[in-house]
Structures are given as structure tokens and as C-alpha cells.
Predict the structure.
Amino acid sequence: MAAICLDWLASIFLSRVFFGQVTYGSAEGSISVLVLFAAEVILFTWLMSASFGQRIMGISVVRLGGGRLSLWRIALRTVLICCVIPALVYDSSGRGLQDRAVGSAVIRTRGVT
């Protein structure tokens, strides 16, 4: 949850920097934040197996069998997260519907301090 909040806050900041003329809280402002959020999560997960917030929190997204996710799986996972409901529904092992749909899992890459 903390990782997604960090990603969202970064997206709000970037939206204000790049689209300062758009009123914060308007439909256009909300769409710009959502698009930046999706782009950030897709790009960083593709390049580093973790979004900005996930890197800070010490977690990573991997394929169930091990290894990196393909770009289309990352994109689908991110779209499902943007739909909110799949991210709120999870199984007994803690995998959300977005992870079950693309065959991924979130793992800890370092201990929590």
C-alpha cells in the first residue's frame, strides 16, 4: 500500500510540474495524474522490475516461475491496478487479482528497516 501511495504522490507532483495550467482536482487533472501513474509504473517495472514506490519499499514484481515480466504483462497488470478493484481483492497468499491475471508475484528484495 505504501508503494502505491508513493507512486501516486510522485504522479501528482509530476502532473503539477508538467501540466501546471490544469486545475488540480479537475477531470483533466485527474486524468493526467492517472496517465502519469500508469506510465511510471509500466516504465519502471519494465526497466527495473519495480515501480518508483516499490523500489523505495524494497519490493519487486516477478513472474511466478521466476524472472522478469514481459511488457504486455506489465501493461495489463498496471491497467488492472488503475481499475482499483483488482488490487483490493487478493487470495490467501496475498496475490491481488492483477497478479493472478498475469502470472506475477510481488516479492521482498530487501528487509524492512
